[in-house]
């Protein structure tokens, strides 16, 4: 078995709570009294461009929420979006410990403004060497090209890399290019599965 030299991590659902997934959007629907079917339909249409960095947060909000007059401001809505993010301390602690020994990167689907807020607010630059974020590279998981790009950027072979995510479809994308992968369910299971691959602080 090849020695793992690089670890790639999902962010939302692994290191932090999700940024703008269905639960966060449901909370926004309730908080701002939005019509859920229309909001979700608009979101679904916009999310590929939004997460690939082709729409700014303002442009997304203009088309998803502020296409008609609202009783709240765009700034109020943005602050609500940012406030949904929370750390997952046990996973962050593990990642920080592993960072001294391995090349560390993220492979994540996120819009630019939320991604940058989360990187800065949770000190992710102290842990990770590179951020293969969909908004920076114009590709989204589970497209195999985003994993191949991560390999190119680190110049490691697929079997020297391990990808960690909480969604099976994203794990499948990584394994298709030859990466080792761990489907995270909880921090204890993640630690055990990494140890079985020889990955330890």
Explain this structure.
The protein has 201 residues and is an alpha/beta fold. Helices cover 49% and strands 11% of the residues. It has 2 domains: 124 residues, Rossmann fold; 62 residues, DNA polymerase, domain 1, CATH 1.10.150.240. The chain is built from 10 helices and 5 strands. Strands 3-2-1-4-5 form a 5-stranded parallel β-sheet, with helices on both faces. The two termini are 19 Å apart.
Query: Which CATH-level-2 architecture of the largest domain?
Result: 3-Layer(aba) Sandwich
Q: Main β-sheet, in a few words?
A: 5 strands, parallel
Number of separate helices: 10
Strand content: 5-15%
- In the CATH hierarchy, what is the class of the largest domain? Alpha Beta
**Molecular shape:** elongated
SSE blueprint:
Layout: E1 6-9, H1 22-32, H2 36-51, H3 57-64, H4 74-83, H5 89-98, E2 103-108, H6 112-121, E3 130-133, H7 134-137, H8 144-154, E4 161-165, H9 168-176, E5 180-183, H10 187-196
Parallel strand pairs: 1-2, 1-4, 2-3, 4-5
List the defining traits of the structure above.
201 residues; alpha/beta; Rossmann fold; DNA polymerase, domain 1; 2 domains; 5-stranded parallel beta sheet; 10 helices; elongated
In summary, what is this structure?
This protein has 201 residues and is of the alpha/beta class.
């Amino acid at each position: 078995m090849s020695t793992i030299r690089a670890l790639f991590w999902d962010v939302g659902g692994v290191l932090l709570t999700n940024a703008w997934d269905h639960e966060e959007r449901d909370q926004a629907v309730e908080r701002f009294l939005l019509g859920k079917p229309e909001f979700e339909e608009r979101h679904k249409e916009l999310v590929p461009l939004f997460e690939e960095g082709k729409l700014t947060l303002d442009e997304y909000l203009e088309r998803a929420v502020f296409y008609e007059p609202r009783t709240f401001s765009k700034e109020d809505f943005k602050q609500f979006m940012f406030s949904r993010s929370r750390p997952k301390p046990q996973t962050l602690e593990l990642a920080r410990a592993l960072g001294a020994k391995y090349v560390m990167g993220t492979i994540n689907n996120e819009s630019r403004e939320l991604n940058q807020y989360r990187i800065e607010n949770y000190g992710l630059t102290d842990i990770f060497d590179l951020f293969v974020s969909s908004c920076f590279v114009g590709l989204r998981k589970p497209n195999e090209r985003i994993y191949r790009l991560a390999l190119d950027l680190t110049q490691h072979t697929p079997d020297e890399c391990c990808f960690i995510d909480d969604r099976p479809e994203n794990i499948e994308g990584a394994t298709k290019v030859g990466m080792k992968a761990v489907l995270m369910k909880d921090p204890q299971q993640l630690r055990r599965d990494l140890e079985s691959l020889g990955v330890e602080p």
